[in-house]
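In this section we walk through a basic example: taking a raw amino acid sequence and producing a predicted 3D structure, encoded as discrete structure tokens. The instruction is simple. Fold the sequence below.
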Amino acid sequence: MRARALIRYQTNLRYGLEFVGLSMEQREMIRYWVYRSAVEHSNSEDFYKEAKRGSPGTEASVDAAEATVKPRRRIRIGRRGVYALIAGMLLLAALGWWQWQKSWSELEKRAPESGLRISPETMDKRIVTKVDPVYPEAARTAGTQGLVVLDAVIAPDGSVTQLRPLSGPDLLVRSATDAVQSWRFEPFLSGGQAIEVETTIAVDFRLN
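The resulting token sequence is shown next.
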């Protein structure tokens, strides 16, 4: 399955992806694959680790499982059979490629248009007007502090048109959103024209 995705966060070589334009069936397929992969990997790894440590019963189970594996019989295929096999594989590959391209074209038609994504460091240097958030009294009383991360859409004129909370304490999200909503940026130019861009904005709340 081929899908489009946006990079929502990045730490070292780990990336967080948000898939776009997926049907409900495709989303469930991805969840199923991840679940099965995690379960199978965990079960097999834990089982053989216990066997190596000499846990009671596991060594015998491993030996019994390996003993039941029978040697595979070799099947000889003639030259004609090889040619037929190769032709069949090429045919399947061609059909698979055609179906892949067809599905990808349909996916691109259904996927929503997305603006250019700019790094937070780049957009931070383009801030023209920045309003500091008000520390909520309820959060101050409760001793709540932390980092609020917002997904932002910056219009061609530099105004903030959309904000979506990604993480952070609930008591601080509203204050951060209200403050960032009034920020202004230098218009981002592409090919000499101002365009809409997406970025990530982080607001840090500290009691001290």
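Looking at the output, two observations stand out. Strands lie at 4-11, 14-20, 116-117, 127-129, 146-154, 160-167, 184-185, 188-190, 193-195, 197-205. The CA atoms of residues 50 and 58 lie 7 Å apart. In the next section we compare this with other chains.
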